[in-house]
C-alpha cells in the first residue's frame, strides 16, 4: 500500500497515491513519494525481560490452578499443623535460623510459615484478637491447630481447615505492632503481613470460599475480612461484607434450625453475629447503610458462657450471670442488633424512626450494657479496663448517632447544632478514644476505630461555640484526633469522609 506523498502530507490534503499525484500536478509541485521507515530491530534485552515476565505470570496462574502434576507430599508436609514434629519443617527449602516465611522449591506452590512462626501467630491471635471476636470454641480450635486433630468433622489437612489455619495466622500477624515485627522477625509489619496475605489468599481459593458449604471456610473468611481492615483503609472490607452475608445465608447460618447440636448452634450463633457486627462496623466506618436487614434473620445471640462450659458432646448449656469470656463480644453483638433496628430501610416504618425513638433504644442499650456487663468488670485487669472503655464508647456513640444520624433524616428535626448536650456526647467519645489510644500505644491490633463522626459533630458545634472550658477541651481532643486518625479513616486522608472534615476544621478554626 503506497503512502501519501511528502507534499500532501505537509499540506495535509488527500493524496490519490499515484505518481505524480493529482494535487501536486494541479499545483505544479514536484511530487516526491514517501518511504516507510525501517522497523527497528527488537532489543534482545527487552525480549528476555518480556519472556521472564510471561514466565512469572504462568507460575502465578499455576499456583492458583493447583497443578495436580506437582508432587503433593512436600506441600502437605509443609502445611501440617504447627504442633507436629520438626520433620515437617525440614522439608522446607529455607535456611535455618529465626522463624521466617520460607519459600518452597516448586514454582507452583506458595509460601508457608515454619511451625515455630505459625505457633507464634496463633498465640498472637489468641492474645489480641480472639477475646474481641469470639467466633471460635478455643479448646476445639487448639486441638485442631496444636494437636492436629480433626476440626468440625474434617481432617486437619482438608482445604477448609487449611484455609482456617492460614486466616488465623494472617490475623495474628496483623495484630502485631510494627516494633514487635521488627524486633522479633527483622521485618516491617507490612512485609510480614504480606507474606501471610499471599498464603491465605491461595488457601481460600483452594477451599472454594464462594461456593463453600463448610463452616470452617466461612469462619476463615470472616477472620480474614476482619483482619484486612487493620492495614487496608480501602473499601475492600466493606465490599466483602455483602459476600459474607450471601454465603452465610446460602448455608442457613442466619436461621435457627431444629436438630442442631448445642455445639454447632453456638458456633453458628457466634459466627452469624460476627458477620452482623462486621456489617455494622462497615456502616459506621464509611457512613453508609448496613447491608443486613434486622427482620431477615432469626439466629439468636450467643449464650453468655465460657468455652469450658460446653463442647462437641454437650447436651445442655446453662448461660452464666455476670462476667464471662463472651462479655465484650455480647456488648458488640447487642449494639449491632440495635444499630440495625435504627437503620431499617422499609419505607413504611421510616416515618416512625424519629430521633426520640432512636434515643430511647440507645438508652435501653446503655442500661443493658452497664447492668449485665460493665458492673462485673475487674478494673485491676488491663484487658478489663480496655473492655470498659470500648463498651462505654459504644454506648456514647449509639446515643450520638440517635441525635446526629450519619444519614439525613427528614422525618424529624434533631436538637440544634450548638446544643451543649450534643457537644458533651461528642467530647465523651473523643475522650474515651484518647484513653484507648494511650492504652494501646497508638497501635491497632484489631479493626481500627476512627471516631470521625464524633470529630465532625464536635467541629460543627465549635463553629458556634468558643471561649468556654468545654470548647477548649473539645479543641484539644479534636486536634489529637485530626493528627491520629487521618491515616486510619476509611479511604485515608484524601477520601470522601476526611476531606469534608478537614474543611469543617478550617471553618471552626477561623471562628475560634
UniProtKB/TrEMBL annotation:
Residues 77-108 have a biased composition (Polar residues). SMART domains: Fungal_trans, GAL4. This is Zn(2)-C6 fungal-type domain-containing protein. It comes from the Eukaryota. One of its GO terms (molecular function) is DNA binding. PANTHER family: UNCHARACTERIZED TRANSCRIPTIONAL REGULATORY PROTEIN (PTHR31001), ZN(II)2CYS6 TRANSCRIPTION FACTOR (EUROFUNG) (PTHR31001:SF85). InterPro entries: Sec_Metabolite_Reg, XnlR_reg_dom, Zn2-C6_fun-type_DNA-bd_sf, Zn2Cys6_DnaBD. Residues 4-31 form the Zn(2)-C6 fungal-type domain. Residues 67-108 are annotated as: Disordered. GO terms for biological process: DNA-templated transcription. It is found in: Nucleus. Keywords: Metal-binding, Nucleus. Transmembrane segments: none annotated. One of its GO terms (cellular component) is nucleus.
Amino acid at each position: 500500500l503506497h503512502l501519501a506523498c511528502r507534499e500532501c502530507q505537509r499540506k495535509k490534503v488527500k493524496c490519490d497515491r499515484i505518481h505524480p499525484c493529482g494535487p501536486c500536478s494541479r499545483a505544479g509541485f514536484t511530487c516526491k513519494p514517501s518511504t516507510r521507515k525501517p522497523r527497528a530491530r527488537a532489543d534482545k534485552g527487552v525480549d528476555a525481560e518480556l519472556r521472564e515476565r510471561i514466565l512469572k505470570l504462568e507460575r502465578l496462574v499455576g499456583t492458583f490452578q493447583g497443578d495436580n502434576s506437582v508432587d503433593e507430599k512436600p506441600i502437605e508436609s509443609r502445611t501440617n499443623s504447627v504442633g507436629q514434629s520438626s520433620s515437617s519443617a525440614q522439608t522446607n527449602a529455607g535456611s535455618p535460623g529465626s522463624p521466617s516465611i520460607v519459600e518452597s522449591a516448586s514454582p507452583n506452590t506458595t509460601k508457608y510459615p515454619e511451625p515455630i512462626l505459625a505457633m507464634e501467630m496463633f498465640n498472637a491471635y489468641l492474645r489480641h484478637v480472639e477475646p474481641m471476636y469470639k467466633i471460635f470454641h478455643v479448646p476445639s480450635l487448639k486441638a485442631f491447630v496444636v494437636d492436629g486433630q480433626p476440626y468440625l468433622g474434617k481432617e486437619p489437612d482438608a482445604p477448609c481447615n487449611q484455609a482456617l489455619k492460614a486466616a488465623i495466622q494472617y490475623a495474628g500477624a496483623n495484630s502485631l505492632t510494627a516494633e514487635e515485627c521488627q524486633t522479633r522477625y527483622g521485618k516491617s509489619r507490612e512485609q510480614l503481613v504480606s507474606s501471610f496475605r499471599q498464603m491465605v489468599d491461595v488457601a481460600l481459593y483452594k477451599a472454594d470460599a464462594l461456593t463453600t458449604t463448610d463452616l470452617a471456610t466461612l469462619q476463615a473468611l470472616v477472620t480474614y475480612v476482619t483482619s484486612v481492615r487493620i492495614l487496608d483503609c480501602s473499601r475492600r472490607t466493606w465490599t466483602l461484607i455483602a459476600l459474607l452475608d450471601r454465603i452465610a445465608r446460602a448455608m442457613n447460618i442466619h436461621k435457627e434450625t431444629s436438630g442442631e447440636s448445642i455445639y454447632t448452634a453456638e458456633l453458628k450463633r457466634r459466627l452469624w453475629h460476627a458477620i452482623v457486627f462486621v456489617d455494622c462496623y462497615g456502616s459506621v466506618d464509611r457512613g453508609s447503610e448496613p447491608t443486613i436487614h434486622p427482620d431477615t434473620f432469626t439466629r439468636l445471640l450467643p449464650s453468655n458462657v465460657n468455652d469450658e462450659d460446653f463442647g462437641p458432646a454437650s447436651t445442655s448449656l446453662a448461660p452464666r450471670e455476670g462476667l464471662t469470656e463472651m462479655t465484650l463480644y455480647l456488648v458488640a453483638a447487642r449494639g449491632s442488633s440495635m444499630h440495625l433496628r435504627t437503620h431499617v430501610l422499609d419505607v413504611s416504618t421510616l416515618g416512625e424512626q424519629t430521633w426520640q425513638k432512636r434515643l430511647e433504644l440507645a438508652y435501653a442499650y446503655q442500661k443493658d450494657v452497664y447492668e449485665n456487663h460493665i458492673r462485673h468488670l475487674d478494673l485491676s485487669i488491663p484487658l478489663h479496663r480496655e473492655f470498659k472503655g470500648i463498651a462505654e464508647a459504644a454506648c456514647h456513640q449509639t446515643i450520638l448517632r440517635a441525635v446526629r444520624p450519619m444519614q439525613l433524616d427528614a422525618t424529624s428535626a434533631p436538637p440544634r447544632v450548638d446544643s451543649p448536650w450534643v457537644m458533651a456526647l461528642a467530647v465523651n467519645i473523643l475522650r474515651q478514644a484518647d484513653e484507648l489510644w494511650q492504652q494501646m500505644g497508638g497501635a491497632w491490633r484489631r479493626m481500627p476505630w476512627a471516631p470521625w463522626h464524633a470529630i465532625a459533630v464536635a467541629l460543627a458545634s465549635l463553629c458556634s461555640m468558643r471561649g468556654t472550658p468545654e470548647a477548649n477541651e473539645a479543641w484539644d481532643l479534636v486536634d489529637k484526633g485530626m493528627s491520629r486518625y487521618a491515616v486510619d479513616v476509611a479511604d485515608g486522608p484524601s477520601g470522601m469522609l476526611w476531606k469534608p472534615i478537614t474543611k469543617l476544621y478550617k471553618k471552626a478554626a477561623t471562628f475560634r
